[in-house]
Write a structure and sequence with these properties.
365 residues, alpha/beta, Rossmann fold, 2 domains, seven-stranded mixed beta sheet, 30% helix, disordered C terminus
Amino acid sequence: MIIGLIKETTDPRVALVPANLSKLTQPGFEFLVESGAGANAFFSDDDYAAHGRVTDRAEVLRSADLLISVHPLPEAEWSSLKPGATLVALFQPYVDPTVAEALDKKGFRAFSLDMIPRTTLAQAMDILSSMASISGYMAVLLGATHLSRYMPMMVTAAGTIKPAKVLILGAGVAGLQAIAMARRLGASVEAFDTRQAAKEEVESLGARFVEVEGAVDDRGAGGYAVQQSDEFLARQRAEVQARAVKADMIIATAQVRGRKAPVLVTAETINQMRPGSVIVDLAASTGGNCGLTQNNQTIQHQGVTIIGDSNLATHLPQDASVLFGNNVTNFLKLLLKDGTLTPDFANEIIRESCVASRKTEPAAA
C-alpha cells in the first residue's frame, strides 16, 4: 500500500515529519513524499528520503492509496487521485457541510482530523488541542509586540511600572496556554469561561476566574463550549465590558462548534478601552469575539490594535508540524494494520472521524 504526503499550498506546516514515517513503517507500506513537502517547516527532502521516496506531486496523487495532508486536497485536483483513494486531512465538515457528500459521490473515503472525539482515549490524536496550545502561546507574544507598555511590573530608578492587565476570554486549551504565557511574562491575568470546570484550571495557573452566574450546564458537551441563553450572554457582555475597559490586552478564544463565535467585545467596549491596548482575536475565522475583528487582518480603532488571526499555529511551523505529525501518526496506527488500511468502525474514534466512506474495502498490498 502506498501512503502519500503532499506539500500544502497555503500553509507552511506539513502533515507528517520524517520521524513519523519511521514510526509508521510496516511490511507492505511504501511512502511517496512530494518534493518540498516539509521545506517551509524546515524538514528537507533528504530527511524524508531516508524513509520513503521523494517525487513530484503528480505521482503522489495518482499513486497514493492513502493521502495525508493538513488541509483538504483542492477539489480541482480530485480527478488526479487514484480511484477509491482514502484521504486524511482537516475537512472541517462543520464549516463546509457539503464536503462529505462531494467526497462520497467521487468514491473517496475520507477521515477528518478535526472530527476525532475529544476524549481521554483520543488525547494523543487531538490535533485541535495541539494547535490551540500553540495559538494561545503565540497570541500573547503577538499581543506583546503590539502593546504600548511592559508586560511585567518593572522597578527602575526612573520609577515603577505596574504590570499589564490581561483578560482572557475562553479558558479552553488556547486560553489556558495564553494564561500561562501571560503569567510567565509577568502580567496580571483574569479569565472568563462559561464552563465552570475551567475555574480550577484557571486558578491553578495563577489567574483570577471571573464568573457570570446562570450558565447552561456543559458537562455533556465533550469539552466544547455550549450555546448560552441570550440573557446570560447579555450579562456576560456587561461583565466583559467592565473588565475590558481596564485591560491592556484581551486574548479572545471563545468559540462554539458549528456556530458563529459569540461577540463578547462590542464596538462600544472598544471605544472605552485605553489607546495603546491590544485585542488578539483567535475566533476571527468564525466571526470573532470582537465586533470589529476583520479576519486575517490587523486594524487600529481609536488607538486600540485588533488582530484577527485564527491560524497562529502556522507562525511556528516546525513545532506545529511535529505535534500535528505525532497526532496523525497516533491516528494512523488505528487505521493501518498488517500492511493494509483496515478501519474498525466499532471504534468510536474511527467512526466519528470518517466523513465519507466508499463501499468496497481497500485491497491488501
